[in-house]
Amino acid sequence: MTVAECHNQPMRAILCREYGPIDQLVLEDVAPPELRPGTVRVRVKAAGVNYVDTLIVQGRYQLKTPTPFTPGWECVGELVEVAPDVARDAPHLASGTRVLVAAGSGAYAEEVVAPAHAVTVVPDGISDGVAATFVQSYMTAMFALRNRAGAERGQSLLVVGAGGGVGLAAVDVGVSMGLRVFAVASSEEKRRLALDQGAEVAFDVAGDDIKSAVRELAAAEGKAGVDLVYDPVGGDLADTWLRTLGEGGQFLVIGFVGGIPSLPLNQVLLRNRSVIGVEWGSWAMQHRSANEALQREVMTMIAEGQLSPVEPTAYPLERTVDALTDLAQRRAAGKLVVVP
Ligand SMILES: NC(=O)c1ccc[n+]([C@@H]2O[C@H](COP(=O)([O-])OP(=O)(O)OC[C@H]3O[C@@H](n4cnc5c(N)ncnc54)[C@H](OP(=O)(O)O)[C@@H]3O)[C@@H](O)[C@H]2O)c1
Asked: How many Å lie between the centroid of ligand 1 and the Cα of residue 52?
């Protein structure tokens, strides 16, 4: 069989036929996507599961993918076919190379076709599981703490949802930047992950008087509160996290898995606090070369052990609905991958 014939064979893929509940997703045999100029074909080894995927398939994400489509924002795999213009312009993207793909869709399948600019060669020293799951969570944390907040060594950082993908990455990135990190999570397993990543303390979101405890920790350094809050959860508790900030403190708005909060502006005025929006995706699209440089830096830090993303829990492709449901229903600790 020639390479072209091989890629005409049906492949298994998850399909979102129309927006709706996660359990409407189906696993089907479909024709492999067409290789067009500027694209490459990747045989998927593992695809990362992100909260964003759960929103996309329900039609609740700000960007709408036309249906029907195969979801799956990011993955790792082996290059198996390269369009002639890519072979000419990007010779490092040769067949057989292990790459990560961050294309926004298509990863919950045996093969994905993606634009060459969304594909990055993965260095040795990074496992398939980590390569399939670090881009969205770590790039968001890096962009938020470094680019948006300008965080400095010695500052204190409160991370909410610290046992989830984006939160756990913020703990790891914060520790690597020399910040004192305080974590908040709902289960023993999630708090353990945050502590293992270097958090100084991990609070139970339901049980502890976190505002008083955080202020006490800050008071030991002569401060009225923490310097930074990293909040991917939102909801009613965002008000409490805002009040943990000390003089000049920065509240980083990351996401709203618990609902979109209303924050009292008097609490922003007090102590000269700021509320800072973070949208890594739009920045990455508008600053492609800066984003690629940041991603290379993050990969090097992972390969050299300065950052240590956790190994994900694996689900077979036929259990993609279970993986997305476990994440959406708050049962997942750390990261998940789907394996075709
Ligand atoms: N701003 C950006 O640039 C950017 C980029 C990527 C992702 N995000 C956003 O970041 C958020 C987190 O994404 P993720 O992939 O890290 O998700 P995740 O792995 O599911 O983690 C989210 C965490 O939120 C907590 N949570 C609290 N209430 C919840 C609820 N009602 N339902 C589900 N989780 C709840 C859970 O922690 P506890 O159980 O410990 O409370 C969970 O571990 C999403 O809103 C996503 O859209 C933003």
From this structure: 9
